[in-house]
Amino acid sequence: MVTEILGDDSVKAVKILNKITGETRILDVEGIFIEIGFEPAKEFFKSMGLEVDDYGYVKVDEWMRTNIPGLFAAGDAISLWRGFRQIVTAAATGAVAAYSAYQYLIEKGLYRSGSFK
Ligand SMILES: Cc1cc2nc3c(=O)[nH]c(=O)nc-3n(C[C@H](O)[C@H](O)[C@H](O)COP(=O)(O)OP(=O)(O)OC[C@H]3O[C@@H](n4cnc5c(N)ncnc54)[C@H](O)[C@@H]3O)c2cc1C
Q1: pTM of the full predicted structure?
Q2: Nearest-CA neighbor of 57 among 33, 31, 75?
């Protein structure tokens, strides 16, 4: 694990601790990406009345419908494919959510071809 970032105006190296052997070593690097994990905005979702899964992600069905009629969700915020977050999956679910929203407006008679009512 990284225990220290070394450098002056820019990153030059990191100090690494081998947690098994207790050994430390210096690794020269030119940059660092910090991975902090995922934390969904569960309180915000709940405040809207959205159902969330055990991890706080918005529950959706295969058409990206949430428990609130007319409200659709997509991307990293949803329960679907949890653990596999990619741009392509976010875009795919976004496309489905947009299509579902379009269908919803038609079903409710709020949209006719080319114009909103
Ligand atoms: C470090 C890192 C590296 C990654 N590398 C890759 C990769 O190589 N390939 C890949 O496919 N995927 C990668 N991903 C995952 C990918 O970035 C995400 O899966 C994708 O961006 C999710 O898209 P999204 O639209 O759901 O969310 P986001 O891209 O996070 O977009 C959400 C947007 O909502 C905005 N927002 C948040 N709260 C509010 C609010 N209250 N009001 C208004 N706007 C708000 C945010 O500012 C943000 O612009 C990486 C992710 C990280 C963090």
Answers
A1: 0.79
A2: 75
- The answer to whether 66 and 51 are in contact (CB under 8 A) is yes
pLDDT, position 117: 65
Give, for ligand 1, the residue of 47, 64, 86 to mutate: max count of ligand atoms closer than 8 Å to Cβ: 86
Measured in Å, residue 76 CA sits from the centre of ligand 1 at 7
Which residue's entry shows tokens 């070593």? 25
Q: Is the CB of 32 under 6 A from ligand 1?
A: no
Digit-coded pLDDT (tens) for 12-55: 999 999 999 999 999 999 999 988 877 899 999 999 999 999 99
Domain architecture of the chain: domains with CATH: 1-34 (no CATH), 42-116 (3.50.50.60)
Q: Give the pLDDT mean for 4-11.
A: 95
| H helical segments located in the chain | 42-47, 87-107
Q: Which atom of ligand 1 is nearest to the CA of 76?
A: 26
Burial class of residue 83 in the structure, from the number of CB atoms within 10 Å of its CB (0-12 exposed, 13-18 middle, 19+ buried): exposed
